[in-house]
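Typical record is below.
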Amino acid sequence: MLRGCIGTIGPVRDSIAEEIISNAISAVSRDPRFVPVREDELSGLEISVDILGAPEYIDGPDELDVKRYGVIVSCGMRRGLLLPDLEGIDDVAEQIAIALSKGGISPYEDYRLQRFEVIRYR
């Protein structure tokens, strides 16, 4: 069961180590969807870190693959991101719909798509 997931699309810290530490702290303590992780939960957590590759603009959903690519949807200043290869996400339409929802973007708005690959560490 997910207990927190917060990250950055691009680097905002001086090193990747600082980036991971900052995002890990945010994920366990500042994800608004969850109560903060308690110390007694730490030994039972499975932790994964995804390092995002550079996003590239694409022309449409046919250039996505939910297992290989994550998606970023953007409309003006609003953006939503969904990582690739997530359990229960099996088709591109669902992947895009979730990213749109996360970004507060209607599917009827004129939005742009980007894809990216990740290196996942567990």
